[in-house]
Amino acid sequence: MTSFTADNHRAWHDLSEAEHVAQRDTLAAQSFRTLSLSIHGPVSAPRYAAAMVKHATVFAARQVINRSFDQFQADFESLAAEGFGPYVLSATGPADNPRYAAAFRKFGFIPLTRHHLTRARFVEMNREAHDRGDRLLWADAFGAASDPRYCAIWVPNPDRIAWNIDAVDEGGDTLQHRFLAMRATGARPTLVAGTPGGRVMEMFTDTGVGKWDAAVNMTPAEYTARRDTNAAAGRFPLCLNSRGSGADRRYAAIFAGRDDITPRTVRSSGTAAVAAIDTLMGDIIKDRNLRGLAIAVGHRTRLLYARGYTFAEAGYPDITPETRFRQASTSKTWCAAAIWRLMQQDSSFTLDTTLQSVLNLKTPSGGAPKDSRFKDVTIRYLLESTSGIPQGGIYRSKEAVDAAGSTLPPAARRSPAGSPTRT
Length: 423
What we know:
alpha+beta, three-stranded antiparallel β-sheet, globular, PGH-like_rpt, hydrolase activity, hydrolase, Beta-lactam/transpept-like
C-alpha cells in the first residue's frame, strides 16, 4: 500500500464518460490503479468521480463503466473466468434500469458480489457476512428514495477486523449521532456513499490510517474547498462518491494520507509480569483482534496479579489495571459469580431452575410472555446464552417499543434528509 502525495494520487469529479476514460487510460499507462469510482447522474449521460493511486507494486486490474444489469453480469462472469473479482462497485439510475461501474483485480478468490439488492436483503446479507466471518469491502446505492437498491462486495476477514454498516440509509441528526458514537470507540469511516433522497450510507471499521477527514452531502463548491484544504495537509480522497446531477450534485468523501492500515503491537503494563500469562493474553488479543483487556487474580480480599494488555497502533491509549470499561457485557462475569454464590447458599436454586419460577416476568400489559419457549428457559440457558430465543428484538422491534409505551430512540428514527459536514 502507499502513502499519498500529489505525484502518486489523482482524483477527479463530474467528468463525462469520454473525459473519464481519457483520464483513466492515461494514468493506467503510468501504473496508476483505481482507488475509488462513482457513477452518477442520468443513465442517458452518466458522470464519473474517481481516484487513482500509483502503488510501489503494480497489480493487474480492469475497469468497466456504464454497464446495464445484464452487461455487468456478463462482465463479472467473463472476468471471474480470468481470475478477476470486483473491489470497487458503483451504480446509478432507477431500479429497473441501472448503470454500473466497477474496478476488478485478482484476489486469489472471487468476492461475493450482488448488484441489485433491496434494503432489507442488503441488511440481511451484512448480518450473514458478520456471522460467517466476512466483511463488507464496498457498496453503493441507487434507485428511488422510497425503495433504494444496493450493490455490494464482501470478502473474507481473516484478521477479524471489526466493522459496522448499520448506517445504510440515514440522514440528519441520526447520521451525525452515529458518526460521533462510532468515532468515540476509535472506529473510522471507510466507506461513504449517497443514497436516494439525499441520505447517506456509511461503514466504519476499527482500523487506523493516521489522520483522516470525512464529509457528506457536500455541494460541488464545498467538496472542492474540502479537497483543497485536505490536500494542503497531505490528505487525499480515499473514497469519493457522488449522487445526482447538475445543481443537485452532492459529494461524500473520506480523505487520508495513505491507504495502508497502521500496524498494531501488543503492549502490557501493571504488576510484575509473568511471561506465560503475558504470552497467553497477547495471543488472545491478536487472534481475536481485540483492542485490549485487563485481568486481575485475587484470593479472598487480596489482589495477587493485575495487568492490562493493549493491541493497538502507536499513540492509542494503553489499557492498564486501572482502566474503566463500559459496563455492557462485562456485567455477565459478576452476574455469573453472584448466581453461583446463590446456588451455594440455597440448594433448591440450581442451573436447571427455570427463570419464570424465580422472576415470573410478564408483558407490559400484565400477560404471560408471548413466546411459549420462555417458560422453559433455565438459569443454565441464560449463563450459556443457549435459550434459542432470537436476540436483539427489543432494540429493533416496533411492537416491543409500543408494548412498553415508549418511543424509539433518536438512533432508530428516520431523520430529515441532509446532514452536516463533519470531521
